[in-house]
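Working notes for the structural subgroup meeting. M.R. asked for a predicted model of this chain before we commit to crystallization trials. I am recording the input and output together here so anyone reviewing the notebook later can reproduce the run.

Input as submitted:
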Amino acid sequence: MRNWILPEYISDVLPAEARQIESMRRNMLDLFSLYGYEQVEPPLVEYVESLLTQQDAALDLKTFKLVDELSGRQMGLRADITPQVARIDSHILNRQGVTRLCYTGSVLCTRPDGLLSTRQPRQIGAEIYGCADLAADVEIIELMFASLAQAGVSDMSLEVGHIGLFNAIADAAHWQGELRQSAFNALKQKDVPTLKTLAASLASELQQGLLALASSYGDLSVLAQARAQLPALPEIAAALDGLQQLHAALTARGIAVRFDLAELPGSYYHTGLVFNAYAKGFTNAVARGGRYDSVGEKFGRSRPATGFSIDLRGLTSVPFPGKKAAVLAPKGEDAALLDAIRALRAQGEIVIVDLGVVQSEVHADRALQQKEGVWQVISL
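Returned structure, recorded in token form:
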């Protein structure tokens, strides 16, 4: 193996892509601040107990682990930033009111989410802590769409689900452990034959409800069908009411909504609403989010929470302006030359000092040249 070969699903970010990622990052953080979100920067590595806020087998499997040589304890490289932000809200900031936080940074996963994914996404996201009201979910989704639009993503739609529907049926069936996990995975994959096998011993209304979830996909009419087909459980009625209210609020904001009641998250800290944003030209979701009201419980404060995250590397296929043409300047110690270079850069011009430039390798359309004792910008 050559020593420059990178691991599978790990890649370098080259100049054009890096410039686009950094531009999106800056613009999104500025947008978040206009909504009142404050930026936090959790560490790349923590003790594993802090990174896994629940008994989360999926997140545990995605987390690289190593031994801390100072303490001898097991540490993990973060595969998700949300548990870290929950720790900051619950254990460090410890505010009593609603808290809006945002973050950006790389995460590292033991395996990719899909064939076209990377194991080192560049996450950016926003989260609201301390508000259980539907208004918080609406704000988060509105901000998510505004962020994607700012990055140049168009033709977007929202796909919404609610993990509370599955949990209500699983609780009524008294499913725990491996059986519950198998049903969760089968529903997520819309594997109807496996669901039928697992639900064979259930009461008919629970069996019918579980199978109905697997085919409940479409527009607002899906909710009416779900009310008729799902068991008459208070948790199910409350979840469907919330989804209907969410549809009304988002439609008023011009956001197209579709429902997939079998849409389940990859991490198990989610407790209710889950959503994915899709856009034309993208194979996978361009943003993901949901509600995770118990994510801070492990840190001593179980606060309502909702948020979203975007992988900036996944957006680099969006058209992006080419790099601004530069001015090529000679090297030297002439005071007038140095002043001219400083003045151009102060005006926002890119000035490249020629230390051995190959002109075909840099985007320069002008040169700084001395004419009649004065340094002037000349078109190439």
